[in-house]
Amino acid sequence: MNQLELAKAAEMPVATRPEAPNIGMMLKGVLEKGITADSVAAVEQLVKLFREEQDRQAERDFAQAFVLLQQDIPRIKATQPVPNRDGTTRFKFAPFEEIDRQLRPLALKHGFTYAFAEGDSDEKRITKICTVQHISGHKRSNPFTVRIGGGPPGSSESQADGAAHTYAKRGALCDAFSIVVEHQDTDARLEGGNVTEEQAFELERRVAETNSNRDAFLKFAGAKSYREIAATKYEILDGFLRKKEKGGR
User: Fold this and answer.
1) Helix 96-109 crosses helix 40-72 at what angle (to 10 degrees)?
2) d(CA 156, CA 126)
3) In degrees to the nearest 10, what's the CA dihedral of 148, 114, 136, 120?
4) What's the gap between Cα 103 and its chain centre?
5) 112 by DSSP, 3-state: which?
6) What is the structure's pLDDT at 138?
7) pLDDT at 29
């Protein structure tokens, strides 16, 4: 092709240029001609490539829809009080039912559903798996493990087991959708303050459940008690305990 012909080809409208065949078109063409002994291997390879491409597209659709969903998810407010043994409020938290009530319609709006299953569990630990699936077919699973503790003040063993199951589901759900629970005293504490009452309670519980050394943990946190831990150090301490919880399974 000479320079004049190249120039004319470059000026050709895009719509008039032949479309590059994709895997689906190639597979359709082979099937229309009929499968022969010689084409079986080619068909199998095209089917494999076609499925892989469909999976990649489904993953892209999942990621795109998830970004849009994240823009709609509100910060869930902690409203459910946890009582001390004397009846006073120790802290407030967002129960699983409230998170699910606010999240589910938004998830469905963006083509997502989610369900729970039990993972590796024993008499000391409970694992819940939250599987998020998009209408495209792509899905992602997120496990969350907790140790079975004593439960809320005054609870029975059965109630403690139930509380652990619900807490594991709540953790798996929040992790799967990157949900943030907002506490009433969050703003004040972020300005150089300490962790919230709920965070202090959870850190104390998890330190005990992972058999971590309490004094060493508080020394690492730079505090004399859990309530005196700086809010800015919570994420580091949470990450430390998560590693111990996963490694302890």
Assistant:
1) 120
2) 17
3) 20
4) 13
5) strand
6) 94
7) 63
